[in-house]
Amino acid sequence: MAILHSIYLRKLGFDVELFYNGPIHRDWEKRIRSNIPLKILPFGLPPSFNGFPNIERLIQRLKLFDIILVHHHICPFLASYLAIFLKSRLVWYCGEPLRALWEDWLSGMSYRELSSTVKPTSRESYGKNFTSIFLSNKFYGVSVSSLRALDKATAHLYTAIIANSNYTKKVVKRIYGLDKSMPVIHPGVETQQNTQDATNGESDNYILAVGAMIPMKNHFTLLKAFHSLPHQYRFKVKLVVIGSGPLENETRSLTRKLGLKNVILESRVSEQRLSSYYANCSFVVHIAFNEPFGLVPVEAALHGKPSIVSNNGGTSEFVVHGENGLLVAPHNSNNIAKAMQCLISDKKLTTEMGFKAKERALKEFTIDKSTENLARTIK
What we know:
11 strands, single chain
């Protein structure tokens, strides 16, 4: 979303530069560089002292801008530096609090449940030595407490905070103890993408799930729900799950354990192939425990497909229960199975919900509308 907002802000006439340190697909990098300058964003705690001059150069460069838009969240150390030296022009577009610090507040998950994602990310950002010490069992509690204090202090220094959903707004205000005004601007999807039906070797008789193989995406409950479908429904459709991540092997193992031979797991697919999967599925299931907003149901809607989503999180701000999809309790596999059974058995209802989902997406959840709202708020 940071990349799309940058490109579309440029289209609205803003002079934009993008500072980024995440992985970028080659096609996206080419698109960015043809539209806006792309610069490397350093981490706030470099593995060696040689990295600190990069932070100083970044701060001096950012002083030339009228507004610094911190998109989603960045390294908490770097965020604190920016808040101290560039407070008057710093705006946070908040997708969620930093989950590595606040996950127990969001979903009740413990450190051990998150270690599969937290440790690799920390090693990549701060180096092996720092991670092995500060995320060890001995120091983890102290490390998290210190970073939470830093994160809270930084949040109070931002000139303004914009939330990506009403759910995120509520969570952020509770975690950081904020009482100031906080506008909400939902993310959006590009409507120029190819939404025509395509052929990928599959009929439309399958359910689609898209999301990284990490604990909060709740793939295990999805598989259990699919397994609990009555036989006449479970063997009538396939379940296609697209995503990769640290829980990929465990997800495959559970699939085998449950004997789910009609479940297809795809690690990585191109954007074109993903679009084809959306176009040819019956409906989408997206039951993350605490999704701040979640673009998967909106992307599916562009192809005229309804979604079953969690009733806890920002996805319910797009999906209206019984109108363009169904809301379910993300921990309740029986509840999820009943929702799937409902859409499998009633093709007419599924088609009607898909039509309304597309109508709602095109009216309220496009990247053009999102960027226009963001630009208006920034001004």
